[in-house]
Amino acid sequence: MHPDTPYEITTARPLPTGPVAHGTGWERPAMLPEELPPGVQVVTLPGGIRTLAYTQPPTAPTPPAAAPGAQPIPAWAKTTALLAPTVGLGIGAASVGLSYAAPGLIAMSHALWSAAALIVAAVVAVPVLLRSGRRPAAPTQITQNITATGLFGRASGTINHR
Questions:
Q1: Structure letter (DSSP) for residue 90
Q2: Contact of 28 with 42, CB cutoff 8 Å
Q3: Which of 11, 18, 17 is nearest to 32 (CA)?
Q4: DSSP letters of 35-59?
């Protein structure tokens, strides 16, 4: 019996042919050894009862882990290591380029604001100039003359436009 297991593993034996003593665990009809599924064995428990149980084969102690040998560097690590300085240099070059272009970008910004102000001024000034170029027209005067005879008489009138 192994010191870590509280049971004893025995191999299945043929059924006894004579009268069976009670308490041996073989009162019921037993399975034949070839009928046992893989990993199942007859086990004697500490109380002396024999039963079927799934068991695991004893494992040999694993040897202490040896120092890991040199392993190859994965491809993704190589790619990342090569890509990092490239991205850093690209960002640095972009910042230097923006620093040289900043005065021109500021001038372009002022030019765009000036162009926007010119367009707004034109939208406002053109209708004002067109209106001021016309001669002022005299306001239209309408004169009405209405006459009626009697309290409920029919009224008639004339309208004059000048």
A1: H
A2: no
A3: 11
A4: GSPTTEEEEE-TTS-EEEEE--PPP
In contact, 24 and 36? CB cutoff 8 Å: no
* pLDDT, one tens digit for every residue, the chain (162 residues): 556 666 666 665 555 555 545 555 555 556 677 777 877 888 888 888 888 888 777 777 777 766 677 788 899 999 999 999 999 999 999 999 999 999 999 999 999 999 999 999 999 999 888 888 777 667 777 788 888 888 888 888 887 776
Please, are residues 45 and 24 in contact by the beta-carbon 8 Å criterion? no
What 7-10 contacts at long range (C-beta under 8 Å, 24+ apart), as own/partner pairs, is 7/43, 7/44, 7/45, 7/46, 7/53, 8/43, 8/44, 9/41, 9/42, 9/43, 9/44, 9/55, 10/41, 10/42, 10/43, 10/44, 10/50
| DSSP-H helix ranges across the chain | 75-133
Residues 6 or more apart whose CB falls under 8 angstroms from that of 49 comprise 23, 25
